Amino acid sequence: MTIEIRNISKSYGDNKILQNIDLKIESGELVALLGPSGSGKTTLLRVIAGIEQADEGSGPVLFDDVDVSDVDLGKRRIGFVFQHYALFKHMNVFENIAFGLRAKPRRERPGEAQIREKVQTLLDLIQLGNMAQRYPSQLSGGQRQRVALARALAVEPRVLLLDEPFGALDATVRRELRRWLRRLHDTIHVTTIFVTHDQEEALEVSDRVAVMNAGRIEQYAPPQEVYEKPASPFVFKFLGNYNLFHGRGQSGDGAALVRPHDIVIHRDRDSAGPDARLGLVSHIGFGGPVVKVELETEDKTHVDVEVTTPTFNDLALKRGETVWFALRTQQEYEYDFVI
Ligand SMILES: Nc1ncnc2c1ncn2[C@@H]1O[C@H](COP(=O)(O)OP(=O)(O)OP(=O)(O)O)[C@@H](O)[C@H]1O
């Protein structure tokens, strides 16, 4: 199902939380709403769900081109998963997943055999086939979130809304679950909106990312485009570490933002190119496939550089040495815009 919202604004008192938001999500897409805390992600999700009413004068929320503004929440067929597990503690996994099916009006309620079959299929889908009889307290956080997802899917929602579903889990489990979610989505193709403040999570999981800042969408594009062609300094800065260089714009008074891995270190001036600058190696941080090298320029600016471990070994850098560095790519912006 497609979701389209047009010109949505939302205020609480004098606080404008969402400002004239337009967004179109294609059928079967997984879209991430990415932004810092307070940028309005959850509010936007709640407006789409119909839990929250947009301000007067806002445009419609359309599901498959039909205005759902006046459709009851219960009839919109939305599956929800929130950050904090909302499983029923006194029900086992099986009963939790079956809950929505059993709660249907008698006319629509499937028979007991059908419920069993459906729950089993969902248990297999979330790879917890052998845990049907366990209670939520006997599951890990990641397993509980998978059950919450299966419970949301049981009633065959037309849309899945996930609000920081992995937010309360540790980094390793989060990484595992986001890969799992991507595979699950590739299997079931239900139109999904995923709220997160984690850049890596948004880029890895989604088909398209809507980057939010102070109640507006700054960019809406596939992950690669958002990363490689950030529409604004905000997007560039939010998506990863960066260095800020002053006065390097073509007009002379610009600023350039450069990722640490887009800086190349050279031992000799000739190979470094005409724009290379000198830097003193002030710190070396090891760990994993990338080495973090901190340089200090003649004007005492710190420059963060990331090189792969093999490159680092080839360069054989030592703290206290002076090297040349050059920018591989840079994003130039008007100065006032960046600061
Ligand atoms: N019911 C409410 N009444 C007043 N202000 C609210 C209400 N709900 C949210 N806000 C405010 O709206 C702003 C956006 O909140 P929202 O939860 O949408 O942000 P978010 O991007 O999801 O942030 P987070 O990642 O921290 O959850 C915040 O400043 C918040 O304090």
From TrEMBL:
GO function terms (MF aspect): ABC-type sulfate transporter activity; ATP binding; ATP hydrolysis activity
Which keywords does this Swiss-Prot/TrEMBL entry list?
ATP-binding, Cell membrane, Membrane, Nucleotide-binding, Sulfate transport, Translocase, Transport
Q: Is Lipid metabolism one of the keywords?
A: no
Q: Give Gene Ontology CC terms.
A: ATP-binding cassette (ABC) transporter complex
| Residues covered by the ABC transporter domain | 3-239
* SMART domains registered for this protein in UniProt: AAA
- Keyword Membrane among UniProt keywords: yes
* One Pfam assignment: ABC_tran
Q: Per its UniProt record, what PANTHER family does this chain match?
A: SPERMIDINE/PUTRESCINE IMPORT ATP-BINDING PROTEIN POTA, SPERMIDINE_PUTRESCINE IMPORT ATP-BINDING PROTEIN POTA
**Family, per entry:** Belongs to the ABC transporter superfamily.
Quote the protein name from its UniProt record. Sulfate ABC transporter ATP-binding protein
* Species for this entry: Rhodoblastus sphagnicola
Lineage runs: Bacteria, Pseudomonadati, Pseudomonadota, Alphaproteobacteria, Hyphomicrobiales
